[in-house]
Automatic annotation (TrEMBL):
Pfam families: TetR_N (PF00440). GO terms for molecular function: DNA binding. Residues 35-54 bind DNA. It comes from Acetanaerobacterium elongatum. Residues 12-72 form the HTH tetR-type domain. This is Transcriptional regulator, TetR family. InterPro entries: DNA-bd_HTH_TetR-type_CS (IPR023772), Homeodomain-like_sf (IPR009057), HTH-type_Tx_Regulator (IPR050624), HTH_TetR (IPR001647). Keywords: DNA-binding.
Length: 199
């Protein structure tokens, strides 16, 4: 038993090392300028080890994008839940504000994932691997709360999906490119749109 546990820990360590190395290099050098050789060198593992865990550079990038999406969404959902308000719309706007503020403070992550901040990235993963119960419960809770207001379950999920997608695209455009305007100027308009949509 101990041997299997040690082996699993070593495998997890190597996989994590590869992800951390790729994330660092993608931010520092850019995705196109980072080779698999550079990733394995930084992770201090053999090149063959890379292919035990990932098919190619796109595969490890997908994993990094998933991890970033997951962390931001969970942080935002927790923040919204902690808000002392029974009003779902205000909690949802607070969640979106948390996401935007995260990207303002972590523009390197936004540059890395580009416009790939979305719930579908996370939901696709949840459909394949049912181990992320915390995130699955957060998504269900949001859609159920919205469903209780004015929408059926499918409509609620589509509204959440569309709003998070819009937030991700706006963050990239307004924070990185400052187009069409900067994000602080965009926030009030975005929040009024969400308010009208949900009320």
């Amino acid at each position: 038993m101990a041997l299997i546990r040690d082996l699993n820990e070593k495998m997890l360590y190597k996989r994590t090392s590869l992800i951390e190395a790729a994330r660092y290099l993608f931010v520092e050098q850019g995705i196109q300028n980072t080779s698999i050789d550079a990733i394995v060198k930084r992770a201090n593992v053999a090149k063959g080890t890379f292919y035990l865990y990932f098919e190619d550079k796109d595969d490890i990038l997908d994993e990094i994008v998933y991890e970033i999406n997951r962390a931001i969404l969970l942080k935002a959902v927790r923040s919204a839940r902690a808000l002392d308000s029974g009003d779902f719309t205000q909690r949802f706007i607070h969640m979106i504000d948390s996401i935007i503020n995260h990207f303002i403070d972590n523009q390197h992550e936004l540059k890395l994932i580009r416009k790939n901040f979305s719930w579908p990235v996370v939901k696709k993963r949840l459909n394949c691997v049912q181990e992320d119960t915390e995130l699955a419960e957060a998504l269900d809770s949001l859609s159920k709360n919205l469903h209780m207001t004015n929408y059926n379950s499918d409509e609620a999920k589509n509204i959440i999906l569309a709003t998070v997608e819009m937030c991700g695209a706006l963050c990239y455009s307004c924070i990185i490119n400052k187009q069409p305007i900067d994000i602080e100027t965009m926030k009030p308009t975005l929040y009024r749109m969400i308010q009208k949509l949900l009320d």
